[in-house]
Input
Amino acid sequence: MRALTIAMIAIILAGCDSPSPEYRHAQVSRQVVGEHSFSIYFTQYKAQAIRTNFAKRPDIRAIARQAEQAIERATGCPVSEIYGDVAVLDGVLDCGKPVVAGEWATWKRPQRSGLICDGYSQISRWGDWQDITLECS
Output
């Protein structure tokens, strides 16, 4: 039973550091910057930083800067654009320039899907929700 528990925990934790499918065959580097540790997956033109430690009340600005530094350390290339959230950040590499301390990447807001959804529901005669309908355009 104990071995099964340990195996289950190992399987669950293995998924915490999985890159996006486009980085499946990319090079990997582990970096620690400040109080955060990252797994960096990178190709010739882009990189993905996955934060692998717990952060209580994470600040996206601080984590993005640290992820950018981790990417630059791993690849040797400056990051020109960075986008994502507090767990996974993607960066565009500009390997034609040297890394310059104090130069930061442009923050790019994630694109929204543009969908607008309205929800409708009906209450059954017993007081619970009978039908819930979402209409998106």
In short: The first strand starts at residue 27 and ends at 33. The chain has a mean pLDDT of 84. The beta strands are 27-33, 36-42, 46-51, 79-84, 88-93, 106-107, 117-123, 129-136. The two ends are 50 Å apart (CA to CA).
